[in-house]
Amino acid sequence: MKRMNRIERCLICLLLIALACGASCRHAASPQSASAPNAPQYTRIISLSPSTTEVLYGLGLFPRVIAVSDYDEFPPEVKQLPRIGGWSNTSLEQVTALHPDLIVMTESQAPLIKDKFDALGVKTIVVPSYTLEDVLAGIEQLGRETGRAQEAQKLINETRAKLEDVRTRTRELPRPRVLCIVDRVPGTLRDLYAATRGSFIVQLIETAGGDSIAPPAASGFGQISKEAVVTLNPEVIIDLEQNTTNGTLAEDPKAVWQELAQVKAVRDGRVYAMHDTSVLHPSQFVGDSARKFAVLLHPEVFKDSGH
């Protein structure tokens, strides 16, 4: 899988900051639309995000997917599909050559690319992707607009059940103070970015029985200094930095965090590196992601990350 470069990741963070306030208001005000009785039967779908590909799979529509983003890993069959670029370099030439009748993307991607597809006259579906409520709304929207409303409701029910199972099992447990780092310069503690309230990642940590302590940020993601980390003194640090495991970017995250040896999480050996990209995807797998976080926060209750 191709990994996002820092320019793409920083661009995404900036877009989230710019969009979050308007998006939250829009989500709160948008009514639920009724199922379309005669939804188009799309047969040539391009998915521009791993999360939308996962939802299309859950709705039984993956056989109609003809191309995906550079970052897709699931289902394994995506390896056989054309890759049409990333967040900021989607190949319009490839898209045009594939003759799609539907392009699916997340709301945070839309400002970068939607107008280009509109100009081509291709139907697009933009799904919300900031919060857990967005995840469920996005599944409902995709199901409704593709004629898979029943499949969508089943997927929503299954996702809610997984989240509630984790929430119930952690409800009475002590809640460690958690800092979740979503980006930093590989091999260093420079340019730290943390998940904050307003992001589905923090909601998953809370579902898993932790308390997120990152300072508030408008977008649900914000830059944080090393000095602030020391002051916050988290009991658990979850490091989602997506580095390669070999080659020039290889690193030992626990060694990197020794720079802040006075922090309780570092001192107690509770810095957890997660190289599982799926936890960053706002799809029906958020229930599984909540369990993965719970395994780290409460290993006495969750012995493994099995589903």
CATH topology of the largest domain: Rossmann fold
Mind telling me the CATH class of the largest domain? Alpha Beta
Radius of gyration: 19 Å
Mean pLDDT: 86
Unreliable residue stretches: 1-8, 10-35, 244-248
Give the end-to-end Cα distance, rounded to a whole number of Å. Answer: 24 Å
- Counting DSSP H or I runs of 4 or more residues, the number of helices is 11
Order of helices and strands: HEHEHEHEHHEEHEEHEHHEH
The CATH superfamily of the largest domain is: Nitrogenase molybdenum iron protein domain
Give the total of domains. 2
CATH 2nd-level architecture of the largest domain: 3-Layer(aba) Sandwich
List keywords for this structure.
single chain, about 300 residues, alpha/beta, Rossmann fold, 2 domains, six-stranded mixed beta sheet, four-stranded parallel beta sheet, 11 helices, globular
Summarize the helices and strands and which ones pair or pack:
Layout: H1 6-29, E1 45-47, H2 50-58, E2 65-67, H3 92-98, E3 102-106, H4 110-120, E4 124-127, H5 132-145, H6 149-170, E5 177-183, E6 193-195, H7 200-207, E7 211-212, E8 221-223, H8 226-232, E9 236-239, H9 253-257, H10 264-267, E10 271-273, H11 286-297
Parallel strand pairs: 1-2, 1-3, 3-4, 5-7, 5-9, 9-10
Antiparallel strand pairs: 5-6, 6-8
Helix pairs in contact: 5-6, 6-11
How would you describe this protein?
This protein folds into 2 domains: 40-168, Nitrogenase molybdenum iron protein domain (Rossmann fold); 174-297, Nitrogenase molybdenum iron protein domain (Rossmann fold), CATH 3.40.50. The protein has helices at residues 6-29, 50-58, 92-98, 110-120, 132-145, 149-170, 200-207, 226-232, 253-257, 264-267, 286-297; strands at 45-47, 65-67, 102-106, 124-127, 177-183, 193-195, 211-212, 221-223, 236-239, 271-273. Strands 5, 6, 7, 8, 9 and 10 form a 6-stranded mixed beta sheet that branches. The chain has a 4-stranded parallel beta sheet with strand order 2-1-3-4, sandwiched between helices. It is built from 11 helices and 10 strands. The protein has 307 residues and is α/β, with parallel strands linked by helices. The protein starts with 5 loop residues before the first helix and ends in a 10-residue tail after the last helix. It is globular. Helix 5 runs antiparallel to helix 6 (149-170) and helix 6 packs parallel to helix 11. The model is unreliable at 1-8, 10-35 and 244-248 (pLDDT under 50).
